């Protein structure tokens, strides 16, 4: 199997950064770089990888606070949902809880996610699934051929993302979760926090997915 994935737990809130790479081409995607840039790049260098894209699931500080820093060191296209651009890097971010800090804006954001788009990086195709609820810009990345879902803060093992933050919408979250429950049982879910799970497990046991 060409696709390999490494979970790196970073920061005080223990966010998951994923390095997804092609074992044949050594090209890699880095999702949601919250902190520990040196640790991420050490892994990249030890494995002999080359970063070809930074897909971001949403623009909360605990997921993209080091995006500019790592992008400056290893430039590659950044993808983000346009709903984030109106608040994430602006003074509106000051409405967020005190422990959140406004992230620095990268010099260039090359991609704006649209629901249903298919992107190809490192030889892998993945679908953008817009999943508002936790945040207006939340997306998941569905690697259909490889049977994995990068779920951000939409779906966790046994739970879901918070819907009590500025920009959250508890009325939209059930619809977003329902979309994910349409995926096959065997799809492995890699959430923004906590351990991995499967769609089938969450369909059967997650109270928010029933």
Describe what you observe in this structure:
With 210 residues, the chain is α/β, with parallel strands linked by helices. The chain has a single domain, classed as Metallo-beta-lactamase, Chain A, CATH 3.60.15.10. Helix content is 17%, strand content 30%. The chain is built from five helices and 14 strands. The strands form three sheets. The chain has a six-stranded mixed beta sheet with strand order 1-2-3-4-5-6, covered by helices on one side. Strands 7-8-9-10-13-14 form a six-stranded mixed beta sheet. It has a two-stranded antiparallel ribbon with strand order 11-12. The N and C termini lie far apart (33 Å). The model has no long low-confidence stretch (mean pLDDT 92).
Brief summary of the model shown:
This protein is an alpha/beta fold and 210 residues long. 17% of the residues lie in helices and 30% in strands.
- By CATH, the topology is Metallo-beta-lactamase, Chain A
Radius of gyration: 16 Å
Name the structural class: alpha/beta
Distance between the termini: 33 Å
* Poorly predicted regions: none
- The percentage helix is 10-25%
Q: Reading side by side through the largest sheet, how are the strands ordered? A: 1-2-3-4-5-6
CATH top level? Alpha Beta
Order of SSEs: EEEHEHHEEEEEEEEHEEH
| CATH superfamily heading | Ribonuclease Z/Hydroxyacylglutathione hydrolase-like
